[in-house]
Amino acid sequence: MVTILTPTYNRCKLLPALYESLKRQTSKNFEWLIVDDGSSDDTKKLVETLKDSEEDFKIKYVYKENGGKHTALNIGFDCCEGELTAIVDSDDYLVDNAVETIEKYWAKYSSDVSLCGLVFLREDKDGNITGQKFPGDEYRSNYIDCRINEGIKGDKFEVFRTEHLKQYRFPVFKGERF
C-alpha cells in the first residue's frame, strides 16, 4: 500500500482537485493522509465530508497547531500505514495511473534494500514534462550525484520507503516555519 501524504495549511479550496485525481486512480491500493497544519479555513469540514462519502480508499485527517510544513510532515510520518509514502502538496494532483505505476516499479525494485525509494518525472497540466529528464529510463542514482553532480534540475515526484521517513525526520528549529 502507498500513503499519499498531504500537508496543508488554509488550502480548503485546493484540496478538491487533488481528491478528484485520487478518485480517478486506476489502483485504489492507497490511503490519503491529510495533516492540517493549523488551518483556520474549512479544511476540517471539507475532509470530514470527503471521508463520509468515500468508499474506494481510506482518508485519514490529523490536525496540529501551525508549525510549518516540515512539522506537519513529521507528524504525518508517524501516521503513515503504507510501505511507501508519496508527499503530494494540496495544490498538486496525480495522473490517473500514478499509484499503479508506483506499484509496478516497486514490485520490480522493492527487494533492493539499497534503494530508499523511487523518483518519477512530473508534468504540467498540458502533459509537458517539467524540469530535466533523467539520462535514461529506470536511471539509478543517489541524490547528490543526480541533483548536484549531474545537475538534473526541476521538480520530481518522490516516493519514499516509509520506514526511512520515520527514521530520518526533518529537523525542527525554534521559530522556523520551513
Mean pLDDT, nearest integer?
A: 94
**Reading side by side through the largest sheet, how are the strands ordered?**
3-2-1-4-7-5-6
Structural class: alpha/beta
> How much helix, percentage-wise, in residues?
25-40%
Order of SSEs: EHEHEHEHEEHEH
The biggest beta sheet is recorded as: 7 strands, mixed
Taking all Cα atoms into account, the compactness measure Rg is: 16 Å
User: Which regions contain 5 or more consecutive residues with pLDDT less than 50?
Assistant: none
Tally the beta strands: 7
Report strand %: 15-25%
Globally, the shape reads globular
Question: Counting H and I runs of at least 4 residues, what is the number of helices?
Answer: 6
**How far apart are the termini?**
28 Å
